[in-house]
Amino acid sequence: MGRKRITQLLDQLQANHEADLQNAAAIFTVAQVAVSQLEQQAAGDSVGIAALPPATPLNKEELRQRYGSYNACRSAAKQKGIHFQKTPTWEQLAAAFTYFEVCEKLIQDYLKLHPNPGLHGVSMQFRMD
C-alpha cells in the first residue's frame, strides 16, 4: 500500500471515530432525557397523593353550625351518599364529611384538568369499606 492510501484510510478511520462519538453523544442525550422523564413520571405518580395537604378535620361544633342538629346532619350525609352501618357518632359524622369533602375536591380538580365530554350525565358512587 502506498503512503497516499494509508493516509486516506487513516482519515476515514478518524472520520468514522468522530461520527461514532457524535452518535454515542446523541444516544446518551436521548437516553438521559428518557430516564429523566420516567423519573419525573414515577415521582409524579408517587407524590400525587403524598403531596396533598392534610385535610382540616371537621368537628361536632362545625357540623352543628352547618346543619343545625344531629338529625339534619344525618340527612345531609344521606343526601351526599354517606351511609353508615350503625348509627354514627358525631366523630364518625365529622370524619365522614371531612373525607367526603377532600375526595370531592380531588375529583373536581381532576375533572377540570382532564375534561371528557363522554362523562356528561354520568354519576359515580365510591365505597370505603
Descriptive overview:
The protein is mostly helical and 129 residues long. It has four helices and no strands. The chain is rod-shaped and about 105 Å long.
Which structural class do the helices and strands define?
A: mainly alpha
Please provide the count of β strands: 0
Question: What is the ordering of alpha helices and beta strands?
Answer: HHHH
Main sheet characteristics: none
Low-confidence stretches: none
CA radius of gyration: 31 Å
Task: Please state the average pLDDT score.
Answer: 83
Distance between the termini: 84 Å
Work out the helicity level.
over 70%
Shape: rod-shaped
The DSSP helix count reads: 4
Task: Bin the strand percentage.
Answer: under 5%
Task: List the SSEs and their pairings.
Blueprint lengths: L2 H48 L9 H8 L2 H11 L9 H24 L16
Helix pairs in contact: 2-3, 3-4
Summarize this entry quickly:
This protein is mainly α and 129 residues long. It has helices at residues 3-50, 60-67, 70-80, 90-113.
List keywords for this structure.
single chain, 129 residues, 4 helices
